[in-house]
Amino acid sequence: xxxxxTILTEARGRVGWITLNRPEALNALNxxxxxxxxxxxxxFDADDAIGAIVVTGSERAFAAGADIKExxxxxxxxxxMADHFGGWAQFAAVRTPVIAAVSGYALGGxxxxxxxxxxxxAADTAKFGQPEINLGVIPGMGGSQRLIRAVGYYKAAxxxxxxxxxxxxxxxxxxxxxRVVPAADLLAEAEKMAETxxxxxxxxxxxxxxxxxxxxxxxxxxxxxxxxxxxAALFDTADQxxxxxxxxxxxxxxxxxR
Length: 258
Ligand code: CO8
Hints:
Layout: E1 7-12, E2 15-20, H1 31-45, E3 52-56, E4 61-63, H2 68-71, H3 76-82, H4 84-92, E5 98-102, E6 105-107, H5 109-116, E7 119-123, E8 127-129, H6 143-151, H7 153-162, E9 165-167, H8 168-174, E10 179-181, H9 186-198, H10 202-217, H11 220-233, H12 238-248
Parallel strand pairs: 2-3, 3-5, 4-6, 5-7, 6-8, 7-10
Antiparallel strand pairs: 1-2, 8-9
Bound molecules: octanoyl-coenzyme A.
């Protein structure tokens, strides 16, 4: 596996792991982290032997935001030219399902990175927030748009305007987090969930992710039309025939990812 500067990667079974690894900065997301995460996620995405990706950090921090020290002296023009958002959009666009396994701080860009994933699994120590307002800026990696879709306008507005953090149970009640687990069990639970997903047929996973993504962006009628077409298209895959035959024959399916 390629060596990266700011992350650790590992393929275990059909699961690709990306671990943010800048402990000295609570995994603050600088330009190199973006490059490394995008490259690692793209490589896993291109590999048919991988059916799910987990992104995680350390016990203390998933990521405490974009790297403030790297950004502090930049001009508006330099920020535009750096196109940080464009880079992260490539990560959000991978077709393989991605789970964020969050322990400790997921703040600013860290919370936004978690929201670019498909599922957020949280340790009971997790803390989510968009504190950019305390720095004289606003969320810049999708937070203002994705948080509203996750928790609704009023809760997102309160979090973004006050900059306060919410704990894992509040984030779960708000619908940001799918499940909260004891911190000691986080990685094992993430692995179980990722293995469950990775055992499915890749074409149906890609299709499911595509229609889920569309639901965030399209009006209902258009989304329903897309869903019907994608549903029908899956009947041309071998895995649909295998999945339904296995059901009829009362056995587990043996998917070939085609
Ligand atoms: N950037 C750079 N360094 C950081 C960051 C960060 N976001 N967060 C923590 N660090 C560093 C600290 O400076 C410190 O380094 P040093 O030891 O050299 O002083 C080290 O990590 C440990 O941090 P603390 O000593 O502060 O640890 P505490 O336990 O006292 O506090 C907190 C933990 C509460 C998480 C605190 O570190 C904090 O408030 N961090 C900043 C959180 C924040 O404001 N995040 C939002 C950043 S802005 C953002 O994310 C915008 C996203 C859009 C960007 C678009 C493109 C770039």
